[in-house]
Q: What sequence folds into this?
C-alpha cells in the first residue's frame, strides 16, 4: 500500500455520550431523564435526549473538525445537562454501569417506540439494561466503503474496550470486571463485534436474515459495535464505555478517526480488510472487558496474548501519519501516558473506593470528573 498523507480537510467527527443521573445524598441512580431533558436550554435542545431508561440522558456534539472544537462541544453539552440535573436536585455521572442501585428497583423504559419494541422482543434480558456508552462518528458518506472500513476496524475493538473500560461496579457490587457494561451488552445476540462483510450488499443480507430470527429489531439499524450509521453519513464505533474525563474522550475519538482514515486509505487501495475469526474476536472482547487496562488481551490477527500497552503502541504506529497530519498525536500520547500512570476509568474507580472506603466516594469522584474542564488527578493508590 502506498502511504498517502491525508492532508487537506480532515473528515469531521462527532460524539454521543450517555450519562446516569444520581441522587447527591445516597448516590443511587435517579429515574428522572424526562424531567432533566425538559430543563435543558433551548439552544441545546437538539443536542440532548433521553435514553433507554429514565436513569439516563444523552448528549451529542455537532460534527467537529479538530480536537479543540470537539472538546468545546463536549464541555458545552455536559455543562447544559449538568445544570439541568442540578435544577432537579440531581447530579450527572459518567460511568458505564450504575455504581449504586437505582431508586425503586428497575427504572421505567424511555418513551421511544424502539425501546418499547426491544422490551417486547428481548423480555427479561432488558431488566438491568441501564448502561452508558460513548459512540464515535467519523464522516464517511460512501456506505460501500464504510462496510469495508469496518472490516479493518474490527480487530482493534478489544483494545478499545480495554482503553475505555469504566464500569467495574454494578448496583453496589464489584463485578471483578473492568467493563461490566460490555458483559451486559454481550448477552444480546446482535450486540458486539460485527461480522466480516464482503460488501454492503453482504452486510445488508446478513442483517435482514438475523432480523428474521427476531435476534435483531430492524435490519436497517443493526447495533453492532461498528456500523455505517443508518441515518448519518458516518461510520459509527460503539464499543466504548462512557468516560468521565473529557480529555480522554477527545483523545480516543481522534485516535478512532485516525484508524478510520487509515483504513479508508487501505480500502481505496483494494484491501477489503483482515478476516479474523468472529468467535475469537468475541472472546477477545470478553477478555478485554474482564481484565481491561493494563492487562493483556488476545491479538486476533496473530492469536497471541499481548499486553494492551503494546497493542496501543502498535495502533498508534499504524495510524501515526494520520495523527500527525491532523495535529492529534500529542493528545493521543498524553492519553496513553494517563493510562500508564493512573490506569483506566475502572482502575480509578477502584482506587477511589480504596481511598474513600465506600462506593459513595466512587460516585463523588465520577461526578467531579464528569463536570471538570481539565483532568483531575486520582488519589494515590493505597500501599
A:
Amino acid at each position: 500500500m502506498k502511504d498517502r498523507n491525508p492532508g487537506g480537510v480532515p473528515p469531521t467527527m462527532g460524539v454521543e455520550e450517555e450519562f446516569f443521573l444520581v441522587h447527591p445524598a445516597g448516590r443511587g441512580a435517579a429515574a428522572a431523564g424526562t424531567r432533566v431533558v425538559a430543563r435543558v436550554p433551548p439552544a441545546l435542545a437538539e443536542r440532548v435526549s433521553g435514553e433507554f431508561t429514565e436513569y439516563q440522558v444523552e448528549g451529542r456534539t455537532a460534527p467537529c473538525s479538530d480536537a479543540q472544537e470537539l472538546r468545546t462541544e463536549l464541555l458545552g453539552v455536559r455543562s447544559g445537562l449538568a445544570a439541568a440535573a442540578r435544577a432537579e436536585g440531581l447530579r450527572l455521572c459518567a460511568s458505564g454501569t450504575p455504581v449504586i442501585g437505582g431508586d425503586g428497583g428497575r427504572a421505567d423504559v424511555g418513551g421511544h417506540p424502539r425501546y418499547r419494541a426491544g422490551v417486547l422482543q428481548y423480555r427479561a434480558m432488558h431488566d438491568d439494561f441501564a448502561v452508558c456508552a460513548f459512540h464515535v462518528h467519523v464522516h464517511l458518506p460512501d456506505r460501500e466503503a464504510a462496510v469495508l472500513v469496518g472490516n479493518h476496524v474490527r480487530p482493534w475493538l478489544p483494545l478499545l474496550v480495554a482503553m475505555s473500560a469504566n464500569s467495574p461496579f454494578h448496583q453496589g457490587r464489584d463485578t471483578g470486571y473492568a467493563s461490566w457494561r460490555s458483559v451486559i451488552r454481550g448477552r444480546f445476540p446482535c450486540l458486539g463485534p460485527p461480522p466480516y462483510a464482503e460488501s454492503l450488499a453482504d452486510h445488508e443480507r446478513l442483517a435482514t436474515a438475523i432480523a428474521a430470527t427476531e435476534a435483531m429489531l430492524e435490519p436497517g439499524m443493526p447495533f453492532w459495535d461498528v456500523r455505517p450509521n443508518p441515518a448519518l453519513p458516518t461510520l459509527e464505533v460503539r464499543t466504548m464505555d462512557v468516560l468521565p474525563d473529557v480529555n480522554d474522550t477527545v483523545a480516543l475519538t481522534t485516535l478512532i478517526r485516525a484508524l478510520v482514515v487509515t483504513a479508508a486509505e487501505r480500502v481505496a487501495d483494494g484491501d477489503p480488510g483482515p478476516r479474523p475469526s468472529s468467535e475469537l474476536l468475541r472472546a477477545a472482547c470478553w477478555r478485554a472487558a474482564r481484565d481491561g487496562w493494563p492487562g493483556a488481551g488476545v491479538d486476533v490477527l496473530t492469536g497471541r496474548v499481548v499486553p494492551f500497552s503494546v497493542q496501543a503502541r502498535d495502533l498508534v504506529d499504524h495510524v501515526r501519519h494520520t495523527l500527525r497530519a491532523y495535529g492529534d498525536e500529542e493528545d493521543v500520547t498524553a492519553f496513553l501516558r494517563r493510562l500508564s500512570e493512573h490506569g483506566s476509568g475502572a482502575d480509578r474507580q477502584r482506587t477511589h473506593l480504596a481511598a474513600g472506603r465506600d462506593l459513595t466516594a466512587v460516585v463523588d469522584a465520577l461526578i467531579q470528573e464528569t463536570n471538570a474542564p481539565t483532568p483531575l488527578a486520582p488519589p494515590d493508590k493505597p500501599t
